[in-house]
Write a structure and sequence with these properties.
This protein is of the alpha/beta class and 196 residues long. The chain has one domain: Rossmann fold (3-Layer(aba) Sandwich). The protein has nine helices and five strands. It has a five-stranded parallel β-sheet, sandwiched between helices. The chain starts with a strand and ends with a helix.
Length: 196
């Protein structure tokens, strides 16, 4: 089974692209969703409060994701700290998932931070979903109902789109001018050709 990473900066549309591959019959592991699910784990809550204090807890004792996001997206050291806690747990879940799906020709691992966590060497191929920064910012503002300044903080904590494109094997352009499905289909055919 080929392991294929699908990445892209915030608001690039990588989840939309992942859904297209899913329509092609390709299974997708969404690392960002798996990471968010870990925030409900009691052991993870203890690790996070030890790292960031009780300020990140809601009155009911759960992780206040908005508060945590505000902290980590304005502080690169805090972002590295949370990644060092969450990332190894997500990797374990991914490895278990790959064992279950080992007979597939290829699978997709969707994650925003493949290059930031220096994970590219763990995959056979990396696909980057690229979109102009102004479009990405507007998408996130509309999606998450947050101000532009907060989105820009998150954008500034990721590698540039150009760097990600240069590091990737394939690039899908999501600029609202080009259709996504034909771009994904071309990559899909190429990936299948490597598994025959």
């Amino acid at each position: 089974m080929l392991r294929v990473a699908l990445t892209g900066n915030i608001g690039s549309g990588k989840s939309t692209v992942a859904q297209i591959f899913n329509v092609f019959g390709i299974k997708v592991f969404n690392a960002d969703i798996e990471a968010r699910n870990l925030y409900n784990d009691k052991n993870v809550i203890q690790l996070l409060t030890a790292a960031f204090t009780n300020i990140i807890l809601s009155p009911s004792g759960e992780i206040d994701k908005r508060t945590l996001a505000t902290i980590i997206f304005s502080d690169k050291i805090a972002l590295k700290k949370i990644n060092s806690i969450i990332h190894p747990l997500v990797v374990n879940k991914y490895n278990e998932w790959c064992t279950i799906n080992k007979d597939d020709r290829y699978t997709i691992h969707e994650s925003a931070i493949i290059f930031e966590n220096i994970l590219q060497d763990k995959f056979d191929f990396v696909i980057n979903v690229s979109a102009p920064v102004d479009i990405r910012i507007q998408r996130v503002m509309d999606r998450d109902n947050i101000p532009e300044i907060d989105v820009r903080k998150r954008v500034n904590n990721q590698l540039s789109d150009e760097e990600k494109c240069n590091l990737s094997h394939f690039v899908i352009i999501n600029d609202e001018k080009r259709f996504l499905t034909p771009q994904a289909q071309s990559i899909h055919k190429t990936l299948l050709s490597y598994t025959q």
